[in-house]
């Protein structure tokens, strides 16, 4: 192993591997340090969606979409708390990144309507296939070295106050490597750190923890020591849609509510507009009595399941015994132990409102964001899935600019230090739009490399 490289990348998930592949294409010498034995991190646990607009898959489905619409949706879902320049950078580079991913060997299967989008914009991947393709693209260059089981301990600045050295442990030895252009942190968030979650997100105490096991916030600590400003922690939210058993080896998840299901608590009462972001639904779900909630739907909604999909494979969850089925609402209520008469009343009132043009209680008029039309729930058999909130990704962290340069408390770039992916704050704002996490990882992973190799900001 050499001691000096153009770039040192800390973390080998979607952001780190996109950065490595981009750097390889430019002929840069790169060292990628991954503390786990395998690549992928939390990217492998994602919902498999990437948010892109104007793609060939959309055109095949007759979907008219543009970057401007994507940006508008992101800002709306983020409630205006996003850094506009970051979202606009996403919009500017999203289509070229989609085409680049395809050219690199990442396979996109279909496009679906997902949370926060005005049109179907969720481009599905198989995470393991995508991670493998990106790794192979980087490794084939011969200019990228990968080290797994490499735990980064500290970053160091040189005499010019530029972050240029990485101290890490590998194979039982402490080593130091230097970066001529930049150190790029793509090390994820802290969804597996009880210490940081307790300090930064005590409101998520009841959420199950299912993030990548290496996501303990070490990258955020590394950047903080170098003066990085931290942001967006007040907006941390869990993800609604997981079965309570998802904290085990199987990450069972269903978003039947985006196909038309309603969500109830243990008293068989609705408590939220089911079309809003599953992050916002998660906040409300954690406030329910004993944090017990269920999704309720009927056969027409069941028929909209998508075999093999991480979020919509209802038949698989039924076969696993995670979805309950009954011929009547009374029988379903007995199975899930909620008041039968109240469940019937809740469904009856919802159906009446939907048939009359809109939900009177919580204002639901669509399936997700501005897309889709709800339908009554009245065709047996009926289904229910107990559903909870999971801490999967944290979406808060170090402050960055549109070139992915890490910023200090005075909004000034810290020389030589970049960050991309889940570790970077400022992008999502107060909400979260499905597919934007993997999307920003890919986009800003590449942007960081382009800026670092030019030794200037991307204009």
From TrEMBL:
InterPro entries hit by this protein: FAD-dep_OxRdtase_2_FAD-bd, FAD-oxidoreductase_2, FAD/NAD-bd_sf, Flavocytochrome_c, Succ_DH/fumarate_Rdtase_cat_sf
Domain FAD-dependent oxidoreductase 2 FAD-binding, chain residue ranges per copy: 7-438
Keyword list, A-Z: FAD, Flavoprotein, Oxidoreductase
Cofactor: FAD
Residues spanning the membrane: none
Keyword Lyase on entry: no
Short name of one Pfam family: FAD_binding_2
PANTHER family membership: FAD-DEPENDENT OXIDOREDUCTASE 2 FAD BINDING DOMAIN-CONTAINING PROTEIN (PTHR43400:SF7), FUMARATE REDUCTASE (PTHR43400)
Family: Belongs to the FAD-dependent oxidoreductase 2 family. FRD/SDH subfamily.
Protein name: Flavocytochrome c
Organism expressing this protein natively: Planococcus shenhongbingii
């Amino acid at each position: 192993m050499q001691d000096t490289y153009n770039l040192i990348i800390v973390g080998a998930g979607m952001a780190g591997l996109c950065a490595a592949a981009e750097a390889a294409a430019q002929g840069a010498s790169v060292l990628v340090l991954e503390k786990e034995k395998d690549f992928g991190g939390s990217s492998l646990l994602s919902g498999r969606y990437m948010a892109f607009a104007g793609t060939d898959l959309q055109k095949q489905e007759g979907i008219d979409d543009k970057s401007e619409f994507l940006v508008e949706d992101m800002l709306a879902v983020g409630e205006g708390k996003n850094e506009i320049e970051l979202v606009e950078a996403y919009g500017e580079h999203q289509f070229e990144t989609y085409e680049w991913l395809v050219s690199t060997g990442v396979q996109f299967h279909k496009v679906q309507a997902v949370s926060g989008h005005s049109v179907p914009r969720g481009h599905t991947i198989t995470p393991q296939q995508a991670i493998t393709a990106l790794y192979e693209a980087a490794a084939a260059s011969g200019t990228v070295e990968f080290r797994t089981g490499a735990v980064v301990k500290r970053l160091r600045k040189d005499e010019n106050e530029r972050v240029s050295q990485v101290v890490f442990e590998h194979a039982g030895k402490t080593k130091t490597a230097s970066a001529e252009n930049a150190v790029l942190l793509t090390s994820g968030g802290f969804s597996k750190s009880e210490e940081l979650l307790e300090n930064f997100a005590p409101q998520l105490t009841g959420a199950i923890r299912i993030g990548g096991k290496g996501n303990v916030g070490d990258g955020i600590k590394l950047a903080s020591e170098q003066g990085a400003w931290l942001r967006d922690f007040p907006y941390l939210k869990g993800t609604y849609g997981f079965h309570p058993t998802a904290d085990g080896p199987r990450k069972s998840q269903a978003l039947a509510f985006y196909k038309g299901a309603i969500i109830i608590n243990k008293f068989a009462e609705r408590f939220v507009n089911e079309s809003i972001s599953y992050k916002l639904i998660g906040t409300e779900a954690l406030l329910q009595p004993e944090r017990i909630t269920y999704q309720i739907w009927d056969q027409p909604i069941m028929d909209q399941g998508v075999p093999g999909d991480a979020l919509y494979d209802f038949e698989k969850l039924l076969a696993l015994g995670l979805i309950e089925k009954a011929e009547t609402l009374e029988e379903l209520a007995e199975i899930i132990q909620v008041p039968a008469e109240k469940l019937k009343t809740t469904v009856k009132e919802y159906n009446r409102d939907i048939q009359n043009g809109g939900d009177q209680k919580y204002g639901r008029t669509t399936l997700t964001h501005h897309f889709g039309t709800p339908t009554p729930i009245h065709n047996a058999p009926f289904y229910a899935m107990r559903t909870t909130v999971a801490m999967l990704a944290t979406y808060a962290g170090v402050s960055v600019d549109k070139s992915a340069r890490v910023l200090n408390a005075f909004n000034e770039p810290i020389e030589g230090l970049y960050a991309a992916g889940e570790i970077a704050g400022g992008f999502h704002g107060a909400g979260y739009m499905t597919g934007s996490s993997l999307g920003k990882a890919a986009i800003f992973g590449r942007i960081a490399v382009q800026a670092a190799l030019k030794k200037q900001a991307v204009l």
